[in-house]
Amino acid sequence: MASSSFSVVSFSSVNTELSVIRLSSRQNLVPLNPRRQCLGIFHRLDRNYRSISASVSSPVQKVSSSSSQLPPDELAASILSKVMQTDRGVTLTREQHMQVADLVSELNKYCVDSPVKCPLIFGDWDVVYCSNPTSPGGGFRSGLGRLVFKTTEMVQAVEAPDIVRNKVSFSALGFLDGEVSLKGKLIVLDEKWIKVVFERPELKIGSLEFGFGGQSEVQLEITYIDDKLRLGKGSRGSLFVFQRR
């Protein structure tokens, strides 16, 4: 924009100055010094340019500290601080989800080479965040489902050598407790990816307990793990944050 405006002003100023030269020459019939006149023109053009340059200010960008400068324990703490008390990510804005994704991406750089072989994967884990609220819990975590079933607990237990148990506990209509549980077999696909084949879900509401639906399977990449935190990414790109119980 600055160069375009300068060009218009420059040519306009030159035409004006040349018109003044012609008019002055005709009226006063006094010969002009071409060198002095040209210097006058360029001096005026320089003032115009400086005036335009001063009026066009470059936006000042605020420099923020990069999350890449944080050590792993601080990155993990920062992730947890952003996802806790958010109903596992449901109440976060799009911008806040992006902030979590950035922190997760940085912490992933510190992952061990073969996380599926790391014994730290075994244990009981709270699911504290998912970038897609309906990924864990299915219909119970949909917009309508959350109105009826308030999630009170979401746990994944990984038992040696190859058992995975998922459990979603809820309160139906605010007074009737229940839970959905799944048991699956863990299959290692490579150094980071696993597949879990689940049996049909079991639903328990009050004293009632019954199975429903059919078998299912999921694939998950373990992108980071330590003694307190585990990060994962689903086959469709959903991000998960697990905190050891």
Automatic annotation (TrEMBL):
Species the sequence originates in: Cynara cardunculus var. scolymus (Globe artichoke)
Domain Plastid lipid-associated protein/fibrillin conserved span(s) in chain numbering: 76-205, 216-242
InterPro entries the UniProt entry points to: PAP, PAP/fibrillin_dom
Pfam family, one: PAP_fibrillin
One GO cellular component term noted in the UniProt record for this chain: thylakoid
Subcellular location: Plastid
Major subcellular location class: plastid
Protein name per the record: Plastid lipid-associated protein/fibrillin conserved domain-containing protein
